[in-house]
């Protein structure tokens, strides 16, 4: 929430008011009968945006001009009624303008329709629809209002990118950028005539040293990959695949590589995706070494521990499982494998693997280190950012200011490549962009998913389906049930779910006993919230009534 203090004093004269663009821009240029933003009976007055008068209560983030919809640290005016900022260039843009970037034709002011995304040729950003922009219809050339009116830069001297001065090349072309290896004709191009060097304007100021979520070390920009000629025979195309999109990296162009010598390479554009890069330049900064904090203290020969999540009592290693009880960390049942059990018999139990979870770790879904938290044990839920499910138990959380990333321990153990032959025969890798891939099992389109590059990226898997146990126990069957799926190319219509008592004629997951041919749907056996403690009442939200999750008499899942 951003508020502006309008009080004046003898030393601070009252500000000069300007009418808000939401009241007059569209009427002046006859673009529509209605303004972009919701009208108000209050006068829409703009005041100069004096940062000393702004109180940012939650986050200090770049402001977003409400005309061109660009994020920027430099906005000039503030509307006290709409509570939005504006560039001064966006307040009263002329209906027609001539720019050096496009000398052949004048540019005219337009308003993009809702649902139509306009890409600015100067800054390369593709903002939301419903904005003012300049356009040349003959050449399909677009500019933000602020990019068009600000001073045109025809030459750039930036030694970090290139030793010579770079000159703007006005002709629309498909020249390949030496920094990103792409030939985007909609981007401004700068060239060096001496070196035959071509670069997009948006690539000139790419950072030198960065950190992304997909790799444990920092990455540095390199203009090309040098390999001695005698070593050419030992490398193959797959050795140069991008660590984000898994496509081939052309060593003749710029890319990011690991600063510590790992054979890890990333396309320039992939490395600087907003959902992967923290937005910080780390050139010249020492890399922070985080201390390895142990989650428990061994007592005696190591069979007894004092776990940080249960500091009051000691826990003892037990070789036999206790069916019917649940692990406090992952909220999965205790059926097989070793466990740690409270020596005071207070029903606090951990799988041995969960007890050994690291206190701090990196995860490819988040750029900051995550810390293991146990504040969700005694009631309450959290929403996992990976599977988007309500969960209880242990969670990894980001402790950075203004960051609320939380992931449950099951999703935190999913890494690249993800291999589960019960689900898919090939290794799976994280999709580079959020919300772009549909899960092939549940047909949801989650924020985070994995895909198969060997199947031409046609197979997708969400974190919720990836973390469902592969084995289950069903009270009506003495054997272990294993997970399987229908497929569209091999539909079996006579498999009958014993819980919902219905046949399945479409792609759906199920558990089956290979001995008794017992079959049950995954959702019927696990329910809608499989990772919330059984037998407890949980308040999901303040505005939502209590939901009671009682143990089902039909199923006892086991972990694998």
Give a description of the structure.
- The protein contains 8 helices and 41 strands.
- The longest helix is centred in the first third of the chain and has 8 residues.
- The strands form 12 sheets. It has a 5-stranded antiparallel beta sheet with strand order 21-22-23-24-25.
- The chain folds into 6 domains: 151 residues, no CATH class; 50 residues, no CATH class; 63 residues, no CATH class; 60 residues, no CATH class; 53 residues, no CATH class; 87 residues, no CATH class.
- A hairpin with a 2-residue loop joins strand 26 and strand 27.
- With 560 residues, the protein is mainly β.
- 7% of the residues lie in helices and 25% in strands.
- Keywords: Metal-binding, Repeat, Zinc, Zinc-finger.
- InterPro entries: C1-like_sf, DC1, Vacuole_Formation_Reg, Znf_PHD.
- It comes from Eruca vesicaria subsp. sativa.
- GO terms for molecular function: zinc ion binding.
- Pfam families: C1_2.
